[in-house]
Amino acid sequence: MNRFKFYMLAVAMMSLIIIPAVQAQPGGLRPGGGQRPGGGGQFGGRGGGQQNNISISQLLQSEKVRAEAEIFDEQVQEIKEAVDKIRSEARANQGERPNFRELTEEQRRELFEKFRKSSEETQKKVNAAVSDILLPPQIERLEEIRLQLLGTGALLLEPVQKKLKISDTQKAKFEEITNGTREKAQEMFGGVREQFQELGGDREKIQALMAEIREKMQAVQKEAEEKIVGTLTAAQKKQFEEMKGKPFEISREDLRPQRPQGQRPGQGQRPEGQRPGGQAGQRPSL
């Protein structure tokens, strides 16, 4: 396998470890408007967040989720128009991006910090717009579904910790567990590259090694989740389950944008201004 393929494989395997990765921006909204404390989701945005976090925008891509939260098509269209306008204004204010190769390390850091602050400000406007359009019960149901999908990883998000009144001692324990999980994952990948190189192009052996790594990673993740839940009091466990609301059957795979059947990633051109997956007559995509 070449370096690029190995890198993509490693990223895919590491994404199985949800616990360390969700120590990021919550990406959610709260009923009544505005952004959650410590927030900065990616509503209507592309990527940008941690691999295993889930934003409200991702949830709204799913017709099944929209139906569960009783979100109207008119609201979806209104959100899309508001988000497009906010992001268009943000792009116009950014100006022309400089050639990164010509910048010093200090200039690059300053530029990245500028982009980060600009992105956060844009996100605040997006979240505020979404809160104005969606009704509190709709936002509340989306948050419940998001917590169900995040599972134990949600316990590492600041808003959830505040609501559950997680103590400093418990937070320290969470950090200890996540650091230990990350170290185990790094140890696991220590000699993986050499193992793949030794296998050459033997597809069956490569698939067997991938399955073995996946199984080990899942075991590490399960152990970490059990330890984190084990730090909660009985009352916290009960409250956390109540925060998830009525069980809703949906997987992370269901949240991925669907491509037309038979079309490969990146295949085909889209009209100017049209978002990926958007076609005339289709429900607007956020």
Brief write-up:
This protein has 286 residues and is mainly α.
Question: Could you please describe the fold and organization of this structure?
Answer:
- This protein is mainly alpha-helical.
- It has one domain (3-95, 105-251).
- 59% of the residues lie in helices and 0% in strands.
- The protein contains twelve helices and no strands.
- Helix 5 (73-94) packs antiparallel against helix 6 (105-133) and helix 9 (168-189) runs antiparallel to helix 11.
- The longest helix has 29 residues, at 105-133.
- The radius of gyration is 21 Å and the shape is globular.
- It starts with a helix and ends in a 43-residue tail after the last helix.
- Residues 17-27, 32-51 and 268-285 have low confidence and may be disordered.
Sum up the structure in keywords.
mainly alpha; 12 helices; 59% helix; globular; disordered C terminus
